[in-house]
Amino acid sequence: MTFKASHRRSLGTHLALFDWLLNPLQRREAPIIYTLLGQQSTTTCGLYLNLGYWTHARDIDSACDELAALVAERAALGAEDQVLDVGFGFGDQDLYWWQHYRPQRIIGLNITRSQVAIARERVAALALGQAIDLRHGSATAMQIPAGSVDKVLALECAFHFRTRERFFSEARRVLRPGGRLVIADIIPLPLSDQPKQRLRQRLTWWLVASKFAIPKDNAYTADAYAQRLSAAGFDAVEVESIRDQVYAPLHHYLQTHPEALKRLHPLLRWALRLALRFSAKTVYAGLDYVLVSANKPGVVEL
User: Fold this and answer.
1) 6 belongs to a structural domain
2) pTM of the prediction?
């Protein structure tokens, strides 16, 4: 690539990020957003994009691993499992699950082609192509045979799906009887009775939903989440809020470790620094973070 072409590409990225961050009328689809963001991450060792789970973690890398471990433990991930990971990002959690749980096979689906290409390169570099099969594909229209997997996992991505209910239906279809679905997900909190707090909740949810391609159909609280999973044919449904172990400790970490922001594009760094001037209670006023699990009934339907 020539200098001029490289310069034009860089300028295009600057303008696109500026438009995405500051244009209130601009709503981009998830694949466009993640292609635009590229490999930018606050992590040091990997390319994780999740917010992390902060019970024992002291840095963003270990917090992201801890969230992947939490999902795996809730799924009871084991050596005999055929796993389907939807929205796998750059494949960090798949590499972690393979290293620590050794499932029989992991199949990944991701709708962002640029992420799929990079994740495949990372898997190939470790000669794990036979064990981890990463594909371009949709979580709401899976090219996966019915009843062929033991676990379906979705780590911080289901809020993007159009719609989450279509994903529930597809997950139930591809799971074997007795199979398990586990999701780490972002949803709105129930609205407060206090007008000022309710306004904060609506504003912060709108900011996240508009910038990160969350469809209006996915904007429902934990109780509705459980009801919709049950209506989709799952049992043993659990929806647990873990927001206190996600948002506030992440916010504190970024406030006290500004070097993590240096790995981001200057415009993203500016936006995050602006958010970090406020308290976590304000920034995340309207956001819940849930760990969700459910089982496909174990009796084969005739």
Assistant:
1) no
2) 0.93
